[in-house]
Amino acid sequence: MSVATKEAEEMDMKEQAETFRRQVLERGEVGPRTRYTREQRQEAVAYMRARQQEGASREEAAKELGVSSWTLSRWGSAARRATQEEPTRSALVAVEVKAASTEARRGGLVVHGPGGVRVEGLSVEDAVALLRGLA
Q1: Alpha helices of the chain — where are they, by DSSP H?
Q2: Fewer CB within a 10 Å sphere, N or C end of the chain?
Q3: Does position 90 have pLDDT exceeding 60, yes or no?
């Protein structure tokens, strides 16, 4: 992408943000929960996503639009739920759990102690001695 093209796109985005802020001001104070119309919220979310594609943060997009980043985040989450989109990143990751091999099981006992201490390969006698020593 050429520098001139990139500058033109940035100018378009700034004009879009300015138009958004002007429309909100023209609407005036309606109420705490109805200040922004559904269309304005959708426009703000689309703007945020476009800016993020360009490498800007949600906070930068929110500042350009004149809304808080928390509000913009909530609107984005609501839009994602409404369209049932998958989140871009998930806190949970699918894993596959496999049974331990018989060789690993024959290797001895595993003792988990306080603070994350882990001792592997103990015989029953060694584990008893270790636990008695901790008591």
Answers
A1: 3-27, 38-53, 58-65, 69-83, 102-106, 124-134
A2: C
A3: no
Per-residue pLDDT, 119: 75
Q: Which 8-state DSSP code applies to residue 82?
A: H
Which alpha helices (DSSP H) does 84-123 contain, by range?
102-106
**pLDDT class for 2, splitting at 50, 70, 90?**
low
3-state SS class at 112: strand
Domain extents for the chain?
3-83, 102-134
Tokens coding 56: 């800007």
Burial of 72 (0-12, 13-18, 19+ CB in 10 A): buried
Which carries the bigger pLDDT value, residue 113 or residue 34? Answer: 113
SS3 label, residue 64? helix
CA dist 60 and 10 (Å) reads 13
Cβ atoms of residues 69 and 58 within 8 Å: yes
Query: What is the predicted pLDDT for the residue at 31?
Result: 60
Measure CA 74 to chain center: 12
